[in-house]
């Protein structure tokens, strides 16, 4: 099916627009690294109109994921709680939240339960309809630019796992900024190019997603891309999503420990039989769970966790120097 897709060449770095790059030893054809800003990017991508289609988040297309699987749903609720705890560190609770590309609304549902006023936009109408009908969320089934939502009106504008799909990340970040209040925040999350996960998995890295993921960012390159888009990064973290009822294999996956996954001896030594949503699974023993959580915390300290979550402040609109400095002395503070 992939062979029938139209692929387009990427000529410029999605992070900064530069056209000079050199090959990276990963991917087929190999990824490129920008000579100017070091963002790694895919040399080609599929026609977005063939990727982001109905069924994208329901496991019904060659791309996308089956978000509706009960274990994936449980994972997303846990990940949402981790994400919101980080956001609340910077922004405080109970503010207004706009999630761009909200999918089926897992993050918004958790944010609403924590007291936030929530709105979503989602261009794939099947996902948007699910968020509206099944979760009772306010979601506009369209692109942000066509949503009709007032600009400069949200405390937080977020986009989880969207930036890596963008051919021009700066332009996308500027668009997000336009819907945040001056002094508000833009929050984005991407797979972590610098993750232990990526280094250990090689071509099997889940963040690679050929033809779909264009830009690959680590904490530093994401921060620099946000600065180029006029944002001020205030908190950049690399969490690994581990949670209480996760199976041993899912934890090993999250931590990039593929070599241990599914092997019977480590499963017997480090795991024990358990239940997850009615399925028989192997869960870690207590000490193993503690050790894996410790490893996740170490990854975070080293900046090599599963994803990069970055929170940046949207500066107040740049004052017109000629008009303001001439007419309003207080403008310069
Ligand atoms: Zn670049």
From TrEMBL:
InterPro entries: SAM-dependent_MTases_sf. It holds the Pfam family Methyltransf_23. Transmembrane segments: none annotated. CDD domains: AdoMet_MTases. It comes from the Bacteria. PANTHER family: METHYLTRANSFERASE TYPE 11, TRANS-ACONITATE 2-METHYLTRANSFERASE-RELATED. This is Class I SAM-dependent methyltransferase. It comes from Candidatus Aeolococcus gillhamiae.
